[in-house]
TrEMBL record:
Source organism of this protein record: Nocardioides zhouii
Protein name: Deoxyribose-phosphate aldolase
Protein's UniProt keywords contain Cell wall biogenesis/degradation: no
Pfam family, one: DeoC
Molecular function GO terms recorded: deoxyribose-phosphate aldolase activity
Catalytic activity: 2-deoxy-D-ribose 5-phosphate = D-glyceraldehyde 3-phosphate + acetaldehyde
GO cellular component terms listed in the entry, alphabetical order: cytoplasm
SMART domains: DeoC
An individual GO BP term: deoxyribonucleotide catabolic process
Metabolic or biological pathway, per its Swiss-Prot or TrEMBL entry: Carbohydrate degradation; 2-deoxy-D-ribose 1-phosphate degradation; D-glyceraldehyde 3-phosphate and acetaldehyde from 2-deoxy-alpha-D-ribose 1-phosphate: step 2/2
Length: 309
């Protein structure tokens, strides 16, 4: 459908800069308004379990050890060992050299292994290194690849370079799903977030993701709103669904529910599914578990009841 558009930098630039501009004031007001919505107790219980199922439980630190990744993967399978009714998370997200450890621990649990690749978080590496990084992660067993775009190329207007890079990384993924990270805190404008969203979707990304979690601001409600509008409009035009993953800075159940309300209102209920919406988080899960315990037992367990990630 977009073959003519991506034949040259000029045609791709015309398309991306021809997208409707984002009304900054209107976008932020809409996001703030949706963030004030309250939901009833039964809906809240459903939302908490859904949010748990949407978590990509993440550790992306230089000090990561195989022991830490094993513990994290075990927690992803059974977030609350005392309550077997508590659902598992969607995935565990790790560096490529930790994929095999996560995969072995998760076994046939159904929890996916996601690996960051393409010289995460900077994206500053030669293309052959980025592709090798991706292939290594897939060969180790990664079900999903979270790649970072070349923000320097994007901000310089070299959109075709960014498009081609996503296409090549997707090919290197094989059967693994591809999440495309924009690092929205570096994209400078809401218009750029909209352009990056369309660029990544046109290149075949299965998910569009806000951030690495290493740059502030990371995920915000207005940025996620723009990305949800993009996936909604893309499906209207192509019939194809693309997922959305806000990552970085989402720490509380209250925050997560704001995002779920926004998903429902902006993109629609089809996206209220771990196949189409994820939270990239580490500390969020514990707060969800504390709130869940409060709703089922009537009392808080306290932060020390659950393992730290």
């Amino acid at each position: 459908m977009y073959d003519d558009i991506v034949r040259s930098d000029s045609s791709l630039r015309r398309f991306l800069h021809g997208l409707p501009g984002v009304d900054q004031v209107g976008c932020e007001a809409r996001a703030a308004g949706l963030g004030t919505r309250s939901i009833k107790t039964t809906a809240k219980a459903y939302a908490i379990d859904l949010a748990i199922r949407m978590v990509d439980l993440t550790t992306l630190e230089g000090a990561d050890t195989h022991g830490k990744v094993k513990a994290l993967a075990s927690k992803a399978k059974r977030p609350d060992p005392a309550d077997p009714s508590c659902p598992a998370t969607a995935a565990v997200c790790v560096y490529p050299d930790m994929v095999a450890t996560a995969k072995q621990t998760l076994g046939d649990s159904g929890v996916h292994v996601a690996a960051v690749a393409t010289a995460f978080p900077s994206g500053r590496a030669a293309m052959d290194i980025k592709l090798a990084d991706t292939r290594d992660a897939v060969e180790a067993g990664a079900d999903e690849i979270d790649m970072v775009i070349d923000r320097g190329a994007f901000l310089s207007g070299r959109y075709l370079d960014v498009y081609d890079e996503i296409v090549q990384v997707k090919e290197a993924c094989g059967d693994a799903h591809l999440k495309v990270i924009f690092e929205t805190g570096e994209l400078q404008t809401y218009d750029n977030v909209r352009r990056a969203s369309w660029l990544a979707m046109m290149a075949g990304g299965h998910f569009i993701k806000t951030s690495t979690g290493k740059v502030q601001p990371a995920a915000t409600l207005p940025v996620t709103l723009i990305m949800l509008e993009a996936v909604r409009d893309f499906r209207d035009q192509t019939g194809q669904m693309v997922g959305v993953k806000p990552a970085g800075g989402i720490k509380t159940t209250k925050d997560a529910i704001k995002y779920l309300v926004m998903v429902n209102e902006i993109a629609g209920p089809d996206w209220l599914d771990p196949d189409w919406f994820r939270f990239g988080a580490s500390t969020l899960l514990n707060d969800l578990l504390m709130q869940r315990t409060k709703m089922t037992t009537g009392r808080y367990s306290g932060p020390d009841y659950f393992t730290l990630d």
